[in-house]
Amino acid sequence: MWVTDVAATMALLLSSSRAHALPSLAPTGPFFQELGNNTWVIGNEIWNMTQGRQYGVKLYYKDHDCVGDAVGHYVSYNGAQSDLNWTSASIHNGGTYQGATYLDVKFASREGDMHWVIFSGLAGAYQYFVNRDLPTLGEFRTLWRLDNTTFTHGKTDLRDEALPPLSEYLPENKVQDETWLRTDGSGGYITKYDLSSWVRTQSYYGVYSDRFGSWYINAGKDYYNGNHLKQELMIHRESKTGDAVQLNMIHGTHFQVSAVDEFPEGKMWGPWLWYLNDGSREDAAQRAQDECAAWPYAWFEDEAYHQRGSVGGQLMLPDGRPATHAAVFLGDNSQSKTALDMGSDYYYTGYADAEGRFEFRDVRAAAYGLQAWSNGSELADVTTEFLQQDVVVVAGETTELGTMTWRVSNKTKIFQVGDFDRTSYGFAYGGAPYEHGLVEKCPADLKFTVGTSKTEDWCFGQSKQGSWVISFSLNKLGAPIPKRAQKEEATLIVSLAGYSTGVSSHIWANDVVIGNLTSGAAPGLLNDPSLYRSGTTAGEWRYFEFPFDAGTVLRKGVNEIRFEVTSNTTWRGFMWDSVVLEW
Ligand SMILES: *[C@@H]1O[C@H](CO)[C@@H](O)[C@H](O)[C@H]1NC(C)=O
Ligand SMILES: *[C@@H]1O[C@H](CO)[C@@H](O)[C@H](O)[C@H]1NC(C)=O
Ligand SMILES: *[C@@H]1O[C@H](CO)[C@@H](O)[C@H](O)[C@H]1NC(C)=O
Ligand SMILES: *[C@@H]1O[C@H](CO)[C@@H](O)[C@H](O)[C@H]1NC(C)=O
Ligand SMILES: *[C@@H]1O[C@H](CO)[C@@H](O)[C@H](O)[C@H]1NC(C)=O
Ligand SMILES: *[C@@H]1O[C@H](CO)[C@@H](O)[C@H](O)[C@H]1NC(C)=O
Ligand SMILES: *[C@@H]1O[C@H](CO)[C@@H](O)[C@H](O)[C@H]1NC(C)=O
Ligand SMILES: *[C@@H]1O[C@H](CO)[C@@H](O)[C@H](O)[C@H]1NC(C)=O
């Protein structure tokens, strides 16, 4: 099967019969070879891989099989049950770009097509997936399960270390999903969730040793689900087999309540670069920089991919302040999901500058909903979010939205504990490196006195039975209860960075229960696994308002807001963002 539109220098496209006819010369460019029986070999003069119906094995690089007895390469959704089956493969495209020849090899499954774009001279390949008929799903990934003697270490933006040896994963020490008590008596844990990282800012990650490195460099981020606070698993030791795992979670749910999406036909994830080297992290970092500079890829032949435009504007608060460093997000043009839970199409994250100006470049042409919220710092007091629907991005054009006003609360603030930014930053342990069970270090009872306590005196998570009290004096704050407020409502705003079910609380204002946070019967809250899966910064953000009658409940002098945990489950509970009382 010869493909004629591909440069002759690279054309080593062998049918099974021709393969037998030729001596086994090493190919000089990208190639695609069909062996029959749903088996193909792809690669170039530097590496090659044998792709079977489900798994890509025999990854030869530097004359060494990097997969060995491990499972190899595959694409799957919703856990391990649904590994895609490749029913046919073909050359999708090919040509030369800046002197380098390439082949785009397409493996087709019922659900969609996995592409490998193989350039001459490149160790690795660009990969992308195009949806045909994926089911409505939460988890969708491509991954390598590699030989664990060839790849002994793992690196993310946050961690760089040896993968824990399989011998440490003792069945009798398993404490929850993919989490084991260490055998060294330290009381610490081994869990794959400790190796998670932020998706939107991630530069490169992978597994390596002193001779081999296998990396993912996802230069574009728009095909991922979620917002700035999207975090995912990246690397780990497979706990059943010991394989070194390099995980490309292109749609994931590991730290969220729900991220179940339907995908339009043609939704494309990628291209990202899967990159092989000698294990050098410096080289991988440099390559990641180059890839980011080159995104969106000029060589990529896909019309819709190149239909991109820009959109910008400025966000101001009604009091004349600019929305300094606000988090800005281009998402679905409907408000049926939270920004973190959106994931059907393409999503763009950014921050406003000091003047509240923002710009998104290289945005796929479409209509979006623009959202903004406080990222702390100068906006730490802003509890509202900004939303503008029908923001239309046109290919080759810049949409200028001008100056927009972000409505804020007009009530008088009595106190605020913690910055409003959808994260636990600022509190004790808030934003610590991923660590299983860290919330155990937060106390059962805690007292915070407005005016004298510091933000870090509040802990990032509340999990144990007991009471966390915010004590505040209305006189000291120079805010005596105004007569007109006596019949007015006060509002307690509770912003949680995350919440794992199994812990319930009553919220008291002095002697009155003004609300509850519970995962019990309806309208109970839903679970996000962040707190018990090593999350320390954020999970699924939740916003609550508990109104009450200030005139009858509050008094001159010392008052208290109390969060009383009435039932608890180990490692679960509330991850705090901010608590605000206003009237
Ligand atoms: C075809 O592949 C299947 C499974 O991958 C294998 O069991 C079978 O032996 C193969 N047949 C031939 C003729 O190679
Ligand atoms: C794949 O690489 C191995 C090891 O370098 C080599 O022996 C083999 O010929 C290559 N296969 C193809 C089809 O090029
Ligand atoms: C792929 O085929 C296997 C049977 O060999 C099956 O168990 C699996 O469910 C199939 N995958 C999908 C996504 O249907
Ligand atoms: C590597 O995997 C093998 C199983 O293939 C396992 O026996 C071994 O313990 C693993 N090595 C490490 C360091 O975990
Ligand atoms: C957003 O907030 C995080 C956490 O406080 C901070 O590290 C980051 O610099 C902020 N981004 C901007 C653009 O201010
Ligand atoms: C706050 O007051 C201004 C001016 O009266 C008004 O335009 C704005 O809608 C109010 N904001 C809210 C959130 O009610
Ligand atoms: C519940 O909290 C109490 C402390 O108030 C603690 O002693 C107990 O161990 C916790 N129970 C669980 C299941 O974590
Ligand atoms: C919690 O508050 C909700 C809303 O006010 C109420 O419907 C529910 O009964 C309360 N649950 C408990 C256990 O107090």
Observed structural traits:
41 strands, nine-stranded antiparallel sheet, RG-lyase_III, mainly beta, 583 residues, Jelly Rolls, 4% helix, Immunoglobulin-like, binds 2-acetamido-2-deoxy-beta-D-glucopyranose, lyase, EC 4.2.2.23, five-stranded antiparallel sheet, Beta-galactosidase, Chain A, domain 5, disordered N terminus, Galactose-bd-like_sf, signal, 3 helices
Describe the structure in your own words.
The strands form nine sheets. This protein has a nine-stranded antiparallel sheet, covered by helices on one side. A five-stranded antiparallel sheet has the order 1-2-3-4-5, with no helix packed on it. Strands 7-6-12-23-22 form a five-stranded antiparallel sheet, with no helix packed on it. It starts with 15 loop residues before the first helix and ends with a strand. Helices cover 4% and strands 41% of the residues. Residues 1-24 have low confidence and may be disordered. The protein has 583 residues and is mainly beta. A hairpin with a 7-residue loop joins strand 16 and strand 17. It is built from three helices and 41 strands. The protein folds into three domains: 4-305, Beta-galactosidase, Chain A, domain 5; 307-405, Immunoglobulin-like, CATH 2.60.40; 413-582, Galactose-binding domain-like (Jelly Rolls). Bound molecules: 2-acetamido-2-deoxy-beta-D-glucopyranose (8 copies). One 2-acetamido-2-deoxy-beta-D-glucopyranose is lined by residues 444, 464-466, 568-570. It comes from Apiospora rasikravindrae. Belongs to the polysaccharide lyase 4 family. Residues 322-401, 414-581 form the Rhamnogalacturonan lyase domain. Its EC number is 4.2.2.23.
